[in-house]
Design goal:
single chain, 12 helices, binds zinc ion
């Protein structure tokens, strides 16, 4: 990245640059996801600050002293009105960068905005001032000057910890999808809660109950059917949707068995107790 911005060793501290990730990655043939993650690590170790998108207004700072600027004005009469407009508006720009608005400057200098921008760019080239145009592209800021790669300290412990954490979480996700373990237990394992009890209500728990004891499932569904039909006669559809336990197939199978054994019967199109 230092090469990309043509930063010399020891330079760059506090400077910000536009960061076009696409261009940067294709320039060095890097993978963009890996690059973004690497930036995050450099940020963690406080080498860089990386803003995915910030709006920075245009700003400028004079790079010459008052007197040198005056000499320039005398020698380049054409620039005199423009520089006067600059000085009237941004007198503080000898000491610090000041935010400017090209639009305001254009009105004061009796120019259009494009002429103002061109003028500022030229003064920038003459090294009279530094002009940085507004941007809302991602920015990378060098918090420290460029270091020799050998002197770079990357906190490997943090990276290893994050890798390990990530692995545990990914494994939990895969287990969730594949394994026949209670969903609740797997979900809580993802959040590092390792001693959760079975929930008893997720699809895995219900399937387990079903396989352990089909007779109990049948009894539970039968009880529910009796309770429902004690209140009122119901159509098959209403009865099935009123039963909590089991799959639709298991509910219908139970109703069929109860019909066959004569424990419930049809009256018209409704089921009721015998
Ligand atoms: Zn469960």
């Amino acid at each position: 990245m230092a090469n990309y911005y043509q930063l010399a060793y020891g330079a760059g501290g506090g400077l910000s640059f536009d960061l076009n990730i696409g261009d940067f990655c294709s320039h060095f043939k890097l993978d963009s996801v890996k690059t973004l993650n690497s930036l995050k690590f450099l940020e963690l170790d406080e080498y860089l600050a990386f803003n995915e998108s910030v709006f920075l207004p245009s700003r400028l700072k004079f790079m010459v002293m008052n007197e040198q600027l005056y000499n320039f004005q005398i020698q380049n009469q054409g620039w005199d009105p423009f520089i006067k407009a600059l000085l009237r508006s941004y007198g503080g720009a000898f000491e610090n960068y000041v935010n400017i608005r090209e639009f305001d400057l254009a009105k004061r200098a009796n120019l259009n905005v494009q002429q103002v921008i061109e003028g500022l760019k030229q003064l920038n080239e003459f090294k009279i001032l530094n002009y940085e145009q507004q941007t809302d592209t991602p920015q990378v800021t060098w918090l420290k000057p460029r270091q020799d790669a050998k002197a770079l300290y990357i906190n490997k412990k943090v990276i290893d910890e994050r890798k390990a954490n990530y692995r545990i979480k990914m494994e939990a996700v895969f287990s969730y999808a594949e394994q026949k373990t209670c969903r609740s237990i797997l979900l809580l394992a993802y959040f590092n809660e390792m001693k959760a009890p079975k929930c008893g209500v997720c699809d895995v728990c219900l399937e387990e109950k079903r396989q352990k004891n089909p007779a109990q499932l049948f009894d539970t569904i039968t009880n529910e059917i009796f309770q429902l039909l004690t209140k009122e006669a119901l159509s098959t559809g209403s009865l099935v949707s009123g039963i909590f336990t089991g799959t639709e197939k298991e509910k219908i199978e139970t109703i069929r068995i109860l019909l066959d054994s004569g424990k419930i019967k049809f009256t018209g199109d409704k089921l009721n107790l015998k």
